[in-house]
Amino acid sequence: MNRTVFILNGPNLNLLGRREPHIYGHTTLEQIRQSSVALAEELGLTCDFRQTNHEGVMVDWIQEAYEQGAAVIINPAGFSFHSIPVLDALKLIDAPLIELHLSNIHARDELHRHSIMSGVVDAVLCGMGADGYPLAVRAIDDLLRRKRSDI
């Protein structure tokens, strides 16, 4: 069974730690990347961690994950609320798929409350800040182990 996880991050997350720290915290995306890759390795997962500000690039990466049969953790950021191309690409994923948000989107303003991605994922983690990433990596590991035991 494929033990690869793509951790895909959407627009403006490259500025974590500086952009609206009162909402998103002070941890940088590079710090999150380092801890995510280290935890994935500890769990026997191969981690491919990426960030883009471009919708088409995100679609290409999701399709790449699909072609590889990889699990996906996606923080779609601003794509969450309007991107039909990203949503349609996520529908391809057969492996475990988790949507992740740093903030609790359900407690945010009306524009940031409803992610159109949530209906096609296995689980949603939100409101845990940077701590959501290791939770998501552990959840992917658990989902992959359960899937393997179903075979």
UniProtKB/TrEMBL annotation:
The keyword Transcription regulation does not apply. SUPFAM superfamilies: Type II 3-dehydroquinate dehydratase. The active site is at Y24 (proton acceptor), H101 (proton donor). The record marks R19 as: Transition state stabilizer. Its EC number is 4.2.1.10. Keywords: Amino-acid biosynthesis, Aromatic amino acid biosynthesis, Lyase. It catalyses: 3-dehydroquinate = 3-dehydroshikimate + H2O. Pathway: Metabolic intermediate biosynthesis; chorismate biosynthesis; chorismate from D-erythrose 4-phosphate and phosphoenolpyruvate: step 3/7. GO terms for biological process: amino acid biosynthetic process; aromatic amino acid family biosynthetic process; chorismate biosynthetic process; quinate catabolic process. Substrate binds at N75, D88, L102, S103. It comes from the Bacteria. GO terms for molecular function: 3-dehydroquinate dehydratase activity. PANTHER family: CATABOLIC 3-DEHYDROQUINASE. NCBIfam families: PRK05395.1-2, PRK05395.1-3, PRK05395.1-4. Catalyzes a trans-dehydration via an enolate intermediate. Belongs to the type-II 3-dehydroquinase family. Homododecamer. This is 3-dehydroquinate dehydratase. It comes from Pseudomonas fluorescens. The gene is aroQ_2.
